[in-house]
Amino acid sequence: MKQRFEIILASASPRRRELLTQAGLEFRVMTADTDETTAETEPAKVVEELSLRKAMGVYRALKEQGMPDAAGAGCGKGLVIVAADTVVSVDGMILGKPENTRRAVEMLGSLSGRTHSVYTGVTLVYVDKNEEKTGRTVTFSECTKVTFYQLSNEEIEEYVATGEPMDKAGAYGIQGLGVELVEKIDGDYNNVVGLPLARVLREMKKL
Fold it and tell me: CA 203, 206, 207 angle in degrees (round to 5)?
């Protein structure tokens, strides 16, 4: 995709940075403190609401710094903020990042031998640097089905001991050591990693 505007990734996730880099995009990272509590219980609505909060948090921070000066040179006069949030859902329960190793073991046990859903919500906020206002805001979510092999207690404990599960929704990383846990997926692989890249690129083109 030919880049026609500056991109700000409103996420500190190295996985999301890798995906945007993979797509050949130039961007910078900027995050803002965001309240991640929500009254929503439906996974798709949860991730959409939280991605919108993250995007608008960065937008407000840019305004406080004085747009367009804070936006940088970029490409052309436009700027797009990209924010995302990912959760795992099984049995109607939402699994975020595990608070500790015990919780990580519990999460992986609940996913063992079963199919679960991974939801990623994305918000794109277009900002016109000259007019210093939001233009179009797009929020959407994608769902990918993931099936785990039947895991033994020893396999789960060995994986948790690597430390990889501790900063990932559902306590596993499909792009890392956690790939050994996954029997099959139905849907966008990148969505499980943390960003439905193809959909994001197509929505950017519409802007």
Answer: 95
In tens, the pLDDT along 99-154 reads 999 999 999 999 999 999 999 999 999 987 665 555 689 999 999 999 999 999 99
Residue in 86, 94, 20 with CA at minimum distance from that of residue 54? 86
Given a cut of 60, is residue 68 above it in pLDDT? no
Cβ proximity of 27 and 9 under 8 Å: yes
pLDDT band for position 92 (cuts 50, 70, 90): confident
What is the 8-class DSSP label of residue 70?
A: G
C-alpha span between 32 and 10 (Å, rounded): 8
Where are the extended beta strands (E) located within the chain?
5-9, 28-29, 78-90, 93-95, 115-128, 133-148, 182-186
3-state secondary structure at position 55: helix
Q: Exactly one of 33, 69, 85, 188 is catalytic; which is it?
A: 85
Paired tokens of 186: 């139905």
Three-state secondary-structure class, residue 32 = coil
**Residue 85 annotated as catalytic:** yes
Q: Beta strand pairing status for 28-29 and 182-186?
A: unpaired
Contacts of 134 (CB under 8 A, 6+ apart): 59, 125, 126, 127
